[in-house]
Amino acid sequence: MPDIIDKKPAQYAGEVGRFAKNLAHPNVGLFNHLRGISVVHGNVQDLSPKVRSYVEANIELCQPDNIHICDGSDNENKQLLNLLQQQGTIVPLPKYKNCWLARTNPADTARVESKTFICTERRADTIPTTKDGIKGTLGNWMSPRDMDAAVQDRFNGCMKGRTMYVIPYSMGPVGSPLSKIGIELTDSAYVVSSMRVMTRMGKPVLDKLAQSDEFVKCLHSVGTPANGTVEMASWPCDPERTIILHKPQNNEIVSYGSGYGGNSLLGKKCFALRIGSTIAKREGWLAEHMLILGITNPKGEKRYIAAAFPSACGKTNLAMLNPTLPGYQIECVGDDIAWMRFDDKGQLRAINPENGFFGVAPGTSYSSNPNAMKTIFENTIFTNVASTSDGGVFWEGMEDEVDFSQIKITDWLGKPWVKGESKTPAAHPNSRFCSPAEQCPIIDPAWEAPEGVPISAILFGGRRPAGVPLIYEARDWQHGVFVGSTMRSEATAAAEHKGKVIMHDPFAMRPFFGYNFGHYLDHWLSMKNRSTNLPKIFHVNWFRKDVDGKFIWPGFGENSRVLDWVLRRIENEDCATETAIGLIPKDDALNMQGLKEEINMKELFHLPKDFWMEECFAIEKYFKEQIGMDLPQAIDEELKGLKKRVNNM
Ligand code: GTP
Ligand code: SPV
Ligand code: MN
């Protein structure tokens, strides 16, 4: 295997010539930077002028030793995996085909919401204006000047001794009218290999750029701590100075200090949601933290449903659901992000802009999510899961799949782990698999359809241990937007929050809004005028607990019973009854055929008046404090209506 760094040393002079020749205004300093640089992979002349000047400017800033222009080929990927193995970043998992395990620095295991900023001239464009003394929780704002200073402070020379990879990628199928292109510059080969799974990456995208030249600028570095210390050579990062910046005005993302998931795979949360939502606002569509699934009923009628649940609250599981209800079939379009717009007939259509799954590993098993298990044991990069002595992986939930008398477990930190004895989890709670979507056995035939799939219903949901029923339906679009705005959920390990506090997470987008949430609500409300055929909106909760702290509802495949009711409601079947909070299934309307467990349906749908009074109070306080003047009047009216109905309960 040739060392990738030395792949094309002979070409260096010529490549530099090409870089230098193309400078908009020849700059001696810049030329000097470029003189020391080898283009070790790819050809500079494949870059469009706009891409080239973006690359050149960041070469000057970051001062990498080498440039690697990614083509997305198998060969390139093999070389990168080899390099990552040499660096100790990944180890092979010989039990499976082309699978790898990465162990991160323990200080770099999840998204960092508190260090994520949207940069606009006016603060009010990014976050609602809160009263003095109230800390806003709907995103963080920074001025473009402070952003520039933060970038200079961290990126100057940050890639010295490293290779800068140029990743051309498409969110959405290359060429779909709903797709968008990004260029990510990164010094992490792990990011390149992961982006190759999560997006359409490489040569076809560069070719596309030659025609349109529009792309989202994404700059990423794992960073180098200011004092020069590197705690873990196999996973360099700079947790102290980690920062994730977005400048919607010029479609620009800058991320420093973390190699993990949503912090570093910039097509995902940074582009597809934060920058994506600002583009969507301008262009009149929706960029949402939603799965997309296709469901066919026993009569052979197929519908598509999108659903927004906060991180680690069940999107991947619902998207790949294995229905227990006979005669139903579910197919997966996407498990995390939906880009949706109304077509000229008023039909809402969605694409999944991603190409892979970056899914939560713990809890995934043949009993909970067999389709995920059939997806993830080929061409997968696992991060922070435990490993087994026979070259496989392990995590909490896989106990039935491992013979502990024969197999030894090594935890995510590389330490021996013994079931029943070890006090810490084997896998990090936010450990993940990164697998190609096309490997999913139930991937939908239309998952790459350029026009998107038609959406008939939207579900909102979260982890609500008390008070919130299994499902309720919003009375109309405006009420549905209100329901999305009132979403709350227990915190999970997907971000840095501690404990299981119930947090407000409107639309499951709290960490991902690219602009003022009040304006986002206006935008959602305005969709009402785009169609006479609006999707129905529902709220679901798989996570209600009984007095003993046990889940009342079995969840997973049994959730097909809830989807069956949703489908019948789409057809306007008379199977719903009004309550103060919305419509719930009539007695016996939920199909419980063949369900083995005894379910306490009364408890599952009980609406305690005191709970809902408290809930109204919490929502009112949240709206007042967090959205203030930016709260649309229609949403305020919905809250007043809910309060009145709850009062009369
Ligand atoms: P992100 O990738 O972070 O956006 O998460 P996600 O929304 O895709 O969540 P995912 O489907 O990975 O589920 C997260 C956790 O919730 C896993 O541990 C699942 O086992 C658990 N879970 C998912 N669906 C259900 C359900 O219906 N009932 C219960 N009790 N747990 C569930
Ligand atoms: C989430 O947290 O919602 C994820 C994982 O999907 S990450 O890509 O890390 O944001
Ligand atoms: Mn997610």
From TrEMBL:
Keywords: Decarboxylase, GTP-binding, Lyase, Manganese, Metal-binding, Nucleotide-binding. It comes from the Eukaryota. Signal peptide: none annotated. NCBIfam families: PRK04210.1. It comes from Nicrophorus vespilloides. Residues 285-645 form the Phosphoenolpyruvate carboxykinase C-terminal P-loop domain. Belongs to the phosphoenolpyruvate carboxykinase [GTP] family. This is phosphoenolpyruvate carboxykinase (GTP). The gene is LOC108558967. Residues 54-281 form the Phosphoenolpyruvate carboxykinase GTP-utilising N-terminal domain.
